User: Which sequence fits this backbone?
């Protein structure tokens, strides 16, 4: 169908809709007159004329479809109030029909009238305000997380906002000359790790001086606070074993001390970085799976997952011995704890057992790949990965040399559990658009439409996605992933402003070669 034919057909459909809608809104005398003008303009293919008439009709219909104010005499008259509610309901339906019709008229005007009736829309760009500008207008509280990762241009734009309590921003990109009206309730907060952390830099002195600064020490430096935190995570499942709270606090302090003294090392022979986030993930795991494993076995599995799987073999032995000392041995029956076969969780309708871990089945039919050879070392790798994916929330980073089977183990487990496997190969020139998407021209309408990227589609479908060679990806790709890797588990698409929440089965994996062994890694 060519553009002229599509314009004629769409206009005819709108005329028919208009005749019906106008007839139920206005009297027959006015109806005949107005409709005649619309039909004449349509027959002559002067489409701008009916668009104007439709908008005028919508303006005239507005007071007719608005709900009536209750008359004073009807107060307390139940029958009159019922009648008025019925009339208001009819008017509300009619108002909704007018709204839908005018949306279609606007689309017709854009595609067929403004484009010269050829069915090809013009590319019209409009300025979309970001969340900071919207917050300034509405009086929201804004948190700029990891502010010392922001670009110099971004920090420069913040400087004017921090000049005085009533300072604001001027959207010069939109052509504004006046600043955005600043709501009195608007507040701006920023968080950052110290510049001593890898990849972090300090804020410019002039900008930093404009903030009221607060130093927040880590809560694990206080042993009493540490016990309180542990109690908060597992207290409700430790009613019959109160000693376990103190045991876990001692275990965390001992493991962290080994890391600080560089007495243990990760796979790259570097001291590991353990923090409250590491502890929180281990405790969250234990609290969730205590009904399945028993509390102390769940704590053992949680600490092995969070504290040992990144270590080299020698350090793993040392830390596992500490876990055994503080978690398993204080129990009344330590041997039976480790030999117990967990029962299938009642929360999982369909679950598959991988070694002694019950994993929820995905939306696809499970497969058992014949070409995947399960040697003892590979079986141990599958077992570690199965433990890591139990919660279906925490992202998993797999690191090792080339051909160690990093990606293939994820693909194997995905097939075994009935999940679709998706892979993105990163390189120095990987574009963020490949991840989240970009605007493309619709071949049918000529409009710019947003085409979602691989990562967004995986989030929506609940797939398992592997970001291969992640330490080759550019900085903007890594920063875009930051919010998804956090406990929030959400992805923001800057082009549309949408926040994408993952489907329950979604899991994110990353694979990379060790730093220093191959060129280009960071």
Assistant:
């Amino acid at each position: 169908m060519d553009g002229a034919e599509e314009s004629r057909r769409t206009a005819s459909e709108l005329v028919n809709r208009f005749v019906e809608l106008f007839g139920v809104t206005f009297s027959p005398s006015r109806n005949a007159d107005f409709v005649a003008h619309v039909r004449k303009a349509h027959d002559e293919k002067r489409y701008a004329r009916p668009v104007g008439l439709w908008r005028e009709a919508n303006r005239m219909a507005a007071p007719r479809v608005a709900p009536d104010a209750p008359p004073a005499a009807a107060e307390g008259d139940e029958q009159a109030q019922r009648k008025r509610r019925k009339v208001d309901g009819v008017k509300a339906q009619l108002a909704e029909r007018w709204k839908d019709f005018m949306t279609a008229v606007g689309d017709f005007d854009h595609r067929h009238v403004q484009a010269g009736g050829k069915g090809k829309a013009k590319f019209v760009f409009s300025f979309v305000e970001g969340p900071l500008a919207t917050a300034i207008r509405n009086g929201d509280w804004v948190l700029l997380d990891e502010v010392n990762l922001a670009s110099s241009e971004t920090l420069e734009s913040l400087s004017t906002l921090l000049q005085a309590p009533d300072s604001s921003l001027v959207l010069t990109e939109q052509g504004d000359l006046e600043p955005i009206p600043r709501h009195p309730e608007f507040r701006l907060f920023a968080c950052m790790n110290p510049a001593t952390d890898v990849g972090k830099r300090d804020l410019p002195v002039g900008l930093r001086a404009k903030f009221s600064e607060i130093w927040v020490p880590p809560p694990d430096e206080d042993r009493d606070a540490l016990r309180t935190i542990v109690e908060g995570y597992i207290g409700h499942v430790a009613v019959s074993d109160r000693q376990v709270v103190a045991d876990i606090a001692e275990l965390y302090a001992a493991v962290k001390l080994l890391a600080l003294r560089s007495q243990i090392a990760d796979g790259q022979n570097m001291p590991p970085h353990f923090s409250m986030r590491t502890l929180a993930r281990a405790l969250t795991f234990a609290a969730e799976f205590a009904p399945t494993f028993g509390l102390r076995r769940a704590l053992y599995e949680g600490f092995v997952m969070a504290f040992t799987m990144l270590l080299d073999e020698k350090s793993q032995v040392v830390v596992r011995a500490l876990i055994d000392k503080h978690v398993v041995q204080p129990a009344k029956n330590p041997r039976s704890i480790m030999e117990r076969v967990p029962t299938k969780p009642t929360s999982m309708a369909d679950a598959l057992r991988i070694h002694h871990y019950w994993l929820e089945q995905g939306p696809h039919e499970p497969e058992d790949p014949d070409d995947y050879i399960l040697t003892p070392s590979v079986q141990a790798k599958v077992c570690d990965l199965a433990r890591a994916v139990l919660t279906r929330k925490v992202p998993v980073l797999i690191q090792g040399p080339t051909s160690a089977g990093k990606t293939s183990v994820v693909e194997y487990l995905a097939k075994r559990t009935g999940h679709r496997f998706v892979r993105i190969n990163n390189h120095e020139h990987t574009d963020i658009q490949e991840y989240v998407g970009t605007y493309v021209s619709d071949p049918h309408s000529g409009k710019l439409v947003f085409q979602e990227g691989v990562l967004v589609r995986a989030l929506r479908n609940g797939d398992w996605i592997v970001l291969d060679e992640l330490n080759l990806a550019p900085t903007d790709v890594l920063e875009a992933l930051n919010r998804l890797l956090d406990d929030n588990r959400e992805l923001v698409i800057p082009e549309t402003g949408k926040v994408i929440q993952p489907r329950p089965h979604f899991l994110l994996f990353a694979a990379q070669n060790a730093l220093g062994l191959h060129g280009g890694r960071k």
